[in-house]
Amino acid sequence: MSVREMLNTHPMTDGQVSDALVACIEQCFRCGSVCASCADACLGEEMVASLRRCIQLNLDCAVICLATGQVAIRRTSENREVLMKMIDACARACAACGEECARHAESHEHCRVCADECHRCEDACREALTLMQ
Amino acid sequence: MSVREMLNTHPMTDGQVSDALVACIEQCFRCGSVCASCADACLGEEMVASLRRCIQLNLDCAVICLATGQVAIRRTSENREVLMKMIDACARACAACGEECARHAESHEHCRVCADECHRCEDACREALTLMQ
Amino acid sequence: MSVREMLNTHPMTDGQVSDALVACIEQCFRCGSVCASCADACLGEEMVASLRRCIQLNLDCAVICLATGQVAIRRTSENREVLMKMIDACARACAACGEECARHAESHEHCRVCADECHRCEDACREALTLMQ
Amino acid sequence: MSVREMLNTHPMTDGQVSDALVACIEQCFRCGSVCASCADACLGEEMVASLRRCIQLNLDCAVICLATGQVAIRRTSENREVLMKMIDACARACAACGEECARHAESHEHCRVCADECHRCEDACREALTLMQ
């Protein structure tokens, strides 16, 4: 639980970071790594030509999740509008990627794992957003 | 002009990528590097304690610009809603960072250069968005 | 255990990815997020002027860990020399950051957590390297 | 030339940053964007199945170039050993990617552009390394 531990000892948060935001940050880093892996696993499949869209959505989702995690983990200055826009973009990227991966979940186990991870990350982003509004 | 050259030879664009999107992509990578540099230059200033907010906004803007550039450069599959949300988030990050840097532009030349770059990137993002709507 | 789950279902690994490499990948993403957080927590400290070096090493380590994790997770094509150089660079970045953070571990709990994380990541990188040689 | 402009106004460099390092930083950001684009262009080709290795090397090179640019642009604290290891890893990633792209340069114009860019980045990295030794 390293993100929670870090944010509890941050000089400007007084441990006041919501569980929803901590979960969102952790899920962003986790989903970013899974999507990077799924893009690569899809690239290795025989039917790669029919997985093009899945690969691009995975790559986009990986980049956006990792960027969102990095922005959300910074608590020194309030930059709430930008953070909310990033979390919203991340939720949409996860929704799009999760939906595409779910289509190949029966043929490719990595797409099933990735779809689940994307849905968890989308949910975590939406819960964090709800609390920030 | 390597981005234009690359997109002109992309198998799925037929050179049909708008100048506005090419400018947006180039400006994102450029502004991302300048913001990373400005965060570091501010960190090196004697008055670092009063530049905290500037440093955080610079770091956020750097991450968001580089992520947006990477998402926008991919043209294989249409993922327009996510792309538009990222470009919008990027425009807001640039606006916030440019505004903060402009406040220290007289004391710190690197903040003046960075503020100019952020404003150019914000404009490029908004023009690309307008065309996509 | 999402990285292990992903790599077990990758079409080209046959579950043959060593535990050491899986641990290295997971630790890279984890350490990357912790270092990004520690840079920000240091920036929020009153004594920020004396934490400049810690902040830069944290930012470098965050970028290098996240990059190394992304390169290491790709298993489609062998690019062993580049991967080993990245893991080696990552081990050195973690060593430098962990050493600097350890100096402030008594004053700043976030530096203590980060130093521990860096040392774990350095160890994981070295073990993965040893197995690859 | 925004990187030169930024480093000239950095409080700790006194304009003492070598042209070789400035060129290396600029080339890293440029090559990072071109490789991200080439991965995507290859993904869009009919013969994508035979471009798998090219795509992975492009993705690796993009991540490593962008990470190296971000580490090299920071001048506040000396972290020379880590920086040199990253520039070295980047030179190798560019060499591998440039070599692979050169193989498809006749069939795919984007691979020709990317191979050229990789070779320029490799050269810029090696020149910066030579000066730092």
From TrEMBL, chains A, B, C, D:
InterPro entries per record: Csp_YhjQ, YHJQ-like
Superkingdom of origin organism: Bacteria
Protein name stated in the entry: Four-helix bundle copper-binding protein
What organism is this sequence from? Peteryoungia desertarenae
